[in-house]
Amino acid sequence: MSAIFSKQFDTKLRLAAGAIVLVLGATGAVMGYLLHPKQFDTGYTPVQPVAYSHKLHAGNLGVDCLYCHYTVDKSSYAAVPMTETCMNCHVRVKEKSPKLQMVRDSYATGEPIPWVKVHRLPDYVYFNHQAHVTSGVSCVSCHGRVDQMVEVRQVQPLSMAWCLECHRNAAPNVRPTEYVTKLDWKPEGDPAELGAKLIQAKGIHPPTNCSGCHR
Question: Which range has the worst mean pLDDT, 16-30, 50-64, 75-89, 114-128?
Fold first, then answer.
């Protein structure tokens, strides 16, 4: 019985099928790269309802992170400051600036300012700010040099792989707790060597098992 398709047609069909597989594979690889947290979230800079400059407040004026985010050393979450915190200064400073009208309205009405969250983690991820801050992990390790940002942006992927990389080798990111909010602080020697000593002294054991972050 003669073949339905010629050998030439069969060869072309095989080549076409192979090309389709290669194209689909390449497309999947590109999409995986583009949608990876490192590419998808890093650089995220939402527009905020009030043009608050961390560079001005935390950098130029030296306002400590804990003044506004006052729960990071005692709670799992980092508090967004209440409008009253802003008005502690702005009741006298720039009290008539049109840029602060929403702040004044919020203070007068009690309606919170609808700040847009920058660093977002999935609901199935448990992250405890207190555990990190009191262990000597600086804000800069996860959030970058916020004191140099006019608009806060996400500088780290905050992916599981990224977190585990630190948990498996935390020493370079551990510093004396009194310098946790000093974003420009640098140790005199090797930061990893200092961090290793602090980890041993405090008995720090960053979890690498699933239940450490998924509860």
Answer: 16-30
- 192 domain-assigned: yes
Whether residue 66 is contained in a domain is answered as yes
Q: Is 142 annotated as a binding residue?
A: no
If DSSP codes are grouped into helix, strand and coil, which group holds residue 142?
helix
Contact 69, 81 (CB under 8 A): yes
Full residue range of the structural domain in which residue 174 is found: 54-80+121-212
Same domain, 28 and 68: no
- Using one digit for the tens of pLDDT, what is the confidence trace for 134-143? 999 999 999 9
Residue 119 annotated as binding site: yes
Within the chain, where are the H helices?
7-35, 37-40, 54, 65-68, 83-90, 101-109, 129-133, 139-143, 160-168, 191-202
* 65 in a known ligand binding site: yes
- The answer to whether 129 is a known ligand-binding residue is no
Same domain, 36 and 126: no
> Same domain for 73 and 33?
no
Looking at the structure, do residues 164 and 126 belong to the same domain, yes or no? Answer: yes
One-character DSSP codes across 6-60: -HHHHHHHHHHHHHHHHHHHHHHHHHHHHHSHHHHTTT--PPPSS---HIIIIII
Q: Is 132 annotated as a binding residue?
A: no
* 190-212 pLDDT, tens digit each: 999 999 999 999 999 999 999 99
Q: Dig out the tokens for 159 from the structure.
A: 């992916």
